[in-house]
Amino acid sequence: MTTTLPAYDEVVARYEPVIGLETHVELGTNTKMWCGCPTDFGGEPNTRVCPVCLGLPGSLPVANKAAIEATVRIGLALNCSIAQWCRFARKNYFYPDMPKNFQISQYDEPLCFDGYLDVEVNGELVRIGIERVHLEEDTGKTLHVGGATGRIHGATESLVDYNRAGIPLVEIVTKPIPGTGALAPEVARAYVTELRDVIRSLGVSDVRMEEGSLRCDVNTSLNLPGEEWGTRTETKNVNSLRSVERAVRSEMLRQAAVLGAGGRITQETRHFHEDTGDTTPGRSKETATDYRYFPEPDLVPLAPDPAWVAELKAALPELPRLHRRRLQEAWGLSDADMQSVLNAGAVELIEATVAAGATPAAARKWWLGELSRRANETGVELADIGATPAQVAELQGLVDAGKLNDKLARTVLEGVVTGEGSPTEIMTARGLEVVSDTGALTAAVDEAIAANPAIADKVRSGKVAAAGALVGAVMKTTRGQADAQTVRTLILERLGAQG
Amino acid sequence: MAAISREEVAHLARLSRLAVTEEELDTFAGQLDVILQAVAQVGEVAAADIPPTSHSVPLTNVLREDVVTPCLTPEEALSGAPDAEEQRFRVPRILDEDVAS
Amino acid sequence: MTDVTAMTATQIAGLVATGAASAVEVTQAHLDRIAAVDGRVNAFLHVDTEGALAAARDIDARRAAGEELGPLAGVPVAVKDVLTTKGVPTTVGSKILEGWRPPYDSTIVERLRAAGTVMLGKTNMDEFAMGSSTEYSAYGPSRNPWDTDRIPGGSGGGSAAALAAYEAPLAIGSDTGGSIRQPGAVTGTVGAKPTYGGTSRYGLVAFSSSLDTPGPCARTVLDAALLHAAIGGHDPRDSTSIPAPVPDVVAAAKLGATGDLSGVRLGIVTEFGGEGAEPGVMATFREAVDTLTKLGAEIVEISCPHFRYALPAYYLIAPSECSSNLARFDGVRFGLRTGDDGNRSLEEVMSLTREAGFGPEVKRRIMLGTYALSSGYYDAYYGQAQKVRTLITRDFTAAFERVDALISPTTPFVAFPLGARTSDPYQMYLADLFTIPSNLYGGPGISVPCGLSEGLPVGLQVMAPTMADDRMYRVAAALESAVGTFTPPAL
Questions:
Q1: Where is the Asn/Gln amidotransferase domain (chain A) (predicted)?
Q2: What CATH code would you report for B6-44?
Q3: Cβ-Cβ contacts under 8 Å, A299 against chain C
Q4: Sheet harboring C213-218: ordered strands across?
């Protein structure tokens, strides 16, 4: 079915969108939620499993203290109330990636509830209400075999790996967000971005959307002004910040087309397709499974000690939004400059580089310049480029000490990125240090003058610009390791000319 | 009046992933009806203001330190599997695409 | 040497400790007894001959090396097939787990080994511990050594029958609604359900998680206490395990054996006053009450008005939890898979597997529980049952303000003939009428033989407050000292 989509401007002129976001965050604990199996990403299939996370008969869960603490900290950072008493619940449904055919989750007693997160959109603060933050367990991974695309449709069989099963998963659900109008897609994106930064600042997850440690479902509905909120759809499979924005926009357009044609929105789950930016329908919620939630009898209730919660609250790090503002001031950046730092994902990197001794300007120069360029070229995240803030600071230190010039520093940095070692090690091993021994330089200058008498005469006669060729010759013999300015000064001195 | 119909029992069987036979449906419908009528007696108790008991032990906050413990080997993990391939559990094609989480 | 199979665990441990008998000799004698009689009793689903003899040799070697061994070292034990045993088949009496060899041991089995006991094998049970006769075992019923045409109780009928048939001096059971106590009563043996949380459920294949309690079975109260002490206590792998030491049940059993109950107040539950119970059972119970009075106990009658709702509440809570617990038996990670012909979908194969792997009682309870948890029915059924559970707990708490322990017949009727109650599931449920309240409350209960009715054993149940397991051992041991133990006719 192909429908002509209306223009976005027309849609937002006619309808008011209401959005809502459900975000799942895999916690970066050492071990799984209910057992001591490690949680590290990757690994051979079914090597990080035990009777508990395989759901073998007789096995029992025991809750991971670090996961409870991380969830409470997330809740506190999102200004939530922390439950004084709450229970885990079983969500019953059959699916082969769920080892027990139920998921241990929380139902009507979430650990954290009723909070908010302020996000900045176009310089304005928007307050996003947080409905709840609860803790549950992740599923295994299913590999579909036999289909042409690796998708479930057309597959003849599936293969299941339970390494991921039981990794602690925090679900963060917003309250419905009305009143954002045309900005709804940007608000959605800004919220997920801010949420990601908050969680990263807490150090409880690496929140990488591309690795699935941050996953997002987007609810969207449209209504005419003054009317009740419309029927919402839930779009799953939204796996990048850009996709969050695209998914909201695409669903707004689709729903407007349906409504415009006199149709009705079905409450359903839809799947977002990264390649096309479209959503396609999944199961209709009207025939949805009854999950038959009931309190998990194998786990006892949680009753966080208020004193402990207060301690965690007191120890929360500064909110990323406030932290960024402080850094911007300290680094003396304009809004636009700060935005480019943010866009490059370089805030923490620059901050750490400054902490390691570099000036803000130098740190920014390396991360936004050479390193960002490389990251773009190779398609990796800046944080994964292979150079650490400490190494960048060390490199800048060598430049400041006159041991490396700009060109040499770039060469050394390349070595750092490809894993050759620290800047000092690379400089030494590859003999890249600036030749600063004046005796050696003077000899090289004399050699260049002797070898190019005609040019030397020109310089002597006042054609100072001709000295460039002699500088080039010296740089060649010193394999670029001399400081060009020093060389030029020496040549002019030698030839009695003024620069 | 019956507490539960044959159709409801068929629905429960589907929810429970039990491919019961037509004959079984007849038998179970009758038996479950008797049982449900008997257990419905709990409704006689006036308990509106009584808190439910989900756990008989008065424990809270039973937590485990975040310390890695040994896993099974893949051979042990897969030892009971009806079917395995590429060190994974093999299952027939899956119809239902939607996964809750 | 006299026949060791006729001895108590305490006596056997004494022989092994002094070197009068080796653990291997003791084990071999029991294996021989099993070989001789189990064809008629069907107490065992799996006899681990090699494993048992190896464990016995290990005990003998350690004793020879001068190692200090536990009070049950060298004593054989039969383990209900509901507990996982690494590398040893564990079926839970179900076709769906036929041939499954778990890759791990349950905590109870680990502790049995640490105590130096020798596991003979795995005993028969109603499938997934759902039943009161072992007739719902997928591997044929066990038979009562008192009359092999009668049931040995259930679900732990195999463990009780093994004791009564002298195939083992000790056995492990699990009690969700009476599955240790009721088989104990109808086979003339002792069965104790510890306080919920007093024994670890790790490795106990779950039926109803908030009720399941593993516990000891023996032919004497002291033996049961020794076994209880060996397997009990905190287990960090079970979140519902109580972090406190086991009450001194062994000392309590020894104290009770002196036959003095002066100063002990016992309550008879008015609501268990004979309605639905056989006259012969009530008569034997009343005689036992007289005996307890003679031993010095003060007897009072106590009303527990909500106990009459225990059975209906239980048959909502247990099936609800079971419907969820048994969802994992889907033919993906372990156990049976049927119907995978290359064309059928996973959903079809799963449904065919569960249809073929589960017996009728398990299916009934799964569907009943699925119903009770469904939105729209939850409040009226599961939710209401949990409130009733609170009221039953309050009845117990109020009663224990007046008395030290409650007593009742363990079961309303003596061992019934095989087949007598299988056609009407609810009639089978009534076998647990008197045992279920303790499970809902979480407190301990013990069944001790108190006499015979029509030549068949009758059990008396002692129910104590949570974590006061020692009290019931004292009362049971006192009664045992007065009425003696009961030996079935030769098989």
A1: 348-495
A2: 1.10.20
A3: 239-240
A4: C44-47, C118-123, C76-80, C170-175, C213-218, C190-193, C445-453, C456-463, C405-409, C265-269, C298-302
